[in-house]
Design a protein that fits this description.
The chain has helices at about 35-45, 45-50, 105-115, 145-165, 190-205, 275-280, 295-305, 345-360, 360-365; strands at about 1-5, 5-10, 15-20, 25, 30-35, 55-60, 70-75, 85-90, 95-100, 115-120, 135-140, 170, 180-185, 210-215, 225, 335-345, 370-380, 385-390. With about 400 residues, the protein is of the alpha+beta class. Among the domains are: about 1-125, DNA primase, PRIM domain; about 335-400. Strands 12-13-11-15-14 form a 5-stranded mixed β-sheet, with helices on one face. Strands 1-2-3 form a 3-stranded antiparallel β-sheet, covered by helices on one side. A hairpin with a 2-residue loop joins strand 2 (about 5-10) and strand 3 (about 15-20). Helix 1 (about 35-45) runs antiparallel to helix 3 (about 105-115), helix 4 (about 145-165) crosses helix 5 and helix 5 (about 190-205) crosses helix 7 (about 295-305). It is globular and about 70 Å long.
Amino acid sequence: MAAAKDQVTLEIGGREVLVTHPGKLLIAEAKVSKLDLVNYYVAVAEGALRGAGGRPCVLVRYPNGIAGEFFFQKRAPTSRPGWMEVAEIRFPSGRSAEEVVPRQAADLAWMANLACLELHPHPVRAEDLEHPDELRVDLDPVPGVAWPQIVQVAGVVQEVLAELGLAGWPKTSGSRGIHVLVRIRPHWGFDEVRRAALALAREVERRAPRLATSKWWKEERHGVFVDYNQNAKDRTVASAYSVRPKPDARVSAPVRWEELALCEPGDFTLHTMPARFRAVGDPHAAIDDAPCSLEPLLALSDTQGQGDAPWPPHYRKAAGEPRRAPPSTAPRAKKPLIEVARAEREAEAVAAAEAWKASHPKAAAHLAPADVLVDRMRGRSSLWYRVRINLEHVPARLRPKEGKPV
């Protein structure tokens, strides 16, 4: 390792990677510096590349640490090493961009030097950009849902997949949820993979209606949302071993099915994961050994006969897609929703919701967990959060008036 003023050069796999401002804190609460992030990804590179390697990746950059602003960078920086591979991705909007394709530990280290905390790969390989080889089951709990319920829903996902002859590989999301990955043969297009994911979500909801939902609109959700739209083209999720922007520097941890009920998301951090990786290896080491067929899920979709479900914003209206608007906006069906806060980060949004409830205790006493809606508002290169309160269960005389969002 060569050092100069406020920079170090690391030799990784025969390649030199320059790390600038190595002591800069990216996660101050956990004392994680940029060099710590680089060393972490080198230590777990084998597992991290199993999840993100060979795939075009969106760079999610935190140049001033998680306390500052972050941004999504789809286009690979022009000032990149000659050995850094790129692939041209075409988006539903018609635009395109060359995105980075990591294949070696040095690639991950170079990305980490850009303050790229998270790995956000597309579900395709660089060699075939139109046929995903991974179906992603994203279990996203509504506010107030505890970890044991998420684990229960993951168990239902495992049950459905196993009955249909598919193998699911679980991991903590690194936030509050669980991801279940299904390696598939790269034979089907994005729309078919999304249709398969929707069929799975609806079947999980049918089997556990009190625990899970496939409803896209947040005002209709309860329990754990099975997010089928993470399989739409251009959607990405944090992959295995990704560091998440949390004060404890937790990471998205691959686990065995029997571990889920015994662990908590906070058990796996940038500081603890390298030792676990050395001790037990990668629980997803065999994920690529037997890719699955989508045909059983597509057949299930045909049997369900429920048609399409809403797509995310910015996507073209799909044939057979229902009205792309929350049910509360339909004529004669509008729910009494008020917006109470906007925030740059999810934790701030949740805190704002709690502050609103504390300021309106009589109204808050009538709220169910699903009445607090924390909406993730995604632009082309940024995220922000909106907090809304559904007052339909609150007596009219106790309903606060809508003010300016804080």
